[in-house]
Amino acid sequence: MSTIFTQIVEGEIPARIVYEDETTVAFLDANPLAPGHTLVIPKDECERLNDVPADVATDLYDTIHRMVPAVEDAVDADATTVAFNNGEVAGQEVPHVHCHIVPRFEGDGGGP
Ligand code: 5GP
Q1: 81 with 36: CB under 8 angstroms?
Q2: Whose CA is nearest to atom 20 of ligand 1?
Q3: Domain 4-104 has what CATH class?
Q4: Tens digits of per-residue pLDDT, 51-97?
Q5: For the whole prediction, is pTM greater than 0.95?
Q6: Distance 84 CA to ligand 1 centre (A)
Q7: What positions carry the motif Histidine triad motif (predicted)?
């Protein structure tokens, strides 16, 4: 059984994809903590950060690096919280590595 994020990669369920390349994809979170909340994932299914092959980890970082300013610009955020929940105990609900990019605004009073 593939993860819900693999189903997004394969176009089996809809998502608002905002960036895609050979190995990574970025899409809007379905239950955003703030407008513009974006997830960046490797296309290949990896449960935890250390399961991601080194070359894909580099691609993942490049996409995060590209998306942080794009997300900030899109919603005129003051900053972003950029985070991985790595493992169930840490709050990871979807067992497919994903980086949260959560726009932050002056006085918003808290992060993820
Ligand atoms: P986690 O708690 O695993 O770090 O975060 C999982 C995130 O995936 C949550 O913020 C949740 O809203 C988001 N999410 C779960 N299912 C879907 C889905 O089907 N589509 C999209 N776009 N986001 C999802």
Answers
A1: no
A2: 30
A3: alpha beta
A4: 999 999 999 999 999 999 999 999 999 999 999 999 999 999 999 99
A5: yes
A6: 12
A7: 96-100
